[in-house]
UniProtKB/TrEMBL annotation:
Name the record gives this protein: DUF2163 domain-containing protein
Signal peptide residue numbers: none
Transmembrane feature ranges: none
Top-level division of the source organism's lineage: Bacteria
Domain Bacteriophage phiJL001 Gp84 C-terminal: 182-265
Matches recorded under NCBIfam families: phg_TIGR02218 (TIGR02218)
Source organism per UniProt: Paracoccus aerius
Amino acid sequence: MTVTTIARAWMVRRGDGMVLGFTDHDAALTFGGITFRPDHGMSARALVQATGLSVDNSEAEGALSDDSITEKDVLAGRWDGAEVKMWEVDWADVARRRLVFAGSLGEIARSQGAFRAELRGLSEPLNMARGRVFHPRCSARLGDGRCKLALTGETFVAEARITTIEDGRILRFANFPVYEAGWFERGSLNVLSGEADGLRATIKNDTALPGGLREIELWQGLGITPAAADRVRLVAGCDKRAATCREKFGNFVNFRGFPHLPSEDWIMAPQAGYRHG
């Protein structure tokens, strides 16, 4: 009878430095300063690796648990882009091992106490478009290193406590600071307390109501629904237009678009090139 001593071991490292190890062996394995546990974590389908630049076609599956990969952390995006390595290892002698996959976690889906995550190989970034896009609207993200706008102070950031919430997406506030209607549309909402602490969503509609009331509608629910009295931070939204950059944010010197580019209609019109050539 032939007995194999080969097991698989996984290492997952989040962006904040947290490291977890898992194995499909029935006992813990330790190497490289990491303990790979058999009782929680991940499994994976067979790897499909190509010689070109295609994504390594595989998925990792695992259980959501309080002491390993929690639903809250998944919803908060803390596992997005986490580094992943997988070894085939001889559990009788862990020094005999072979690295068979290195990459990162891609899209993560969850359901019924479990998660499923796409695995992306090291070649994945090479498939991404590079270079600058020439477009009338700004290509920077509000507050990033290219935008250079400091999102501090009461002008662009507001904190408030939820008064009521409807359908998990419509949040209402009382005694809200005075801002123009729509000031936070396309902006973000970050939960600062309660069960949903750390979760983030994009704002779809921002409606100012009489008597200092405010209604914020999200594009989709947060997964873990905040409760009344939970504290949130709202960040002003940007529609990427030059006029908004100049008038709302006073940051036109850092505008990363090309507002004077001719429109597609101008380019495609049969007579336009002749008249303006």
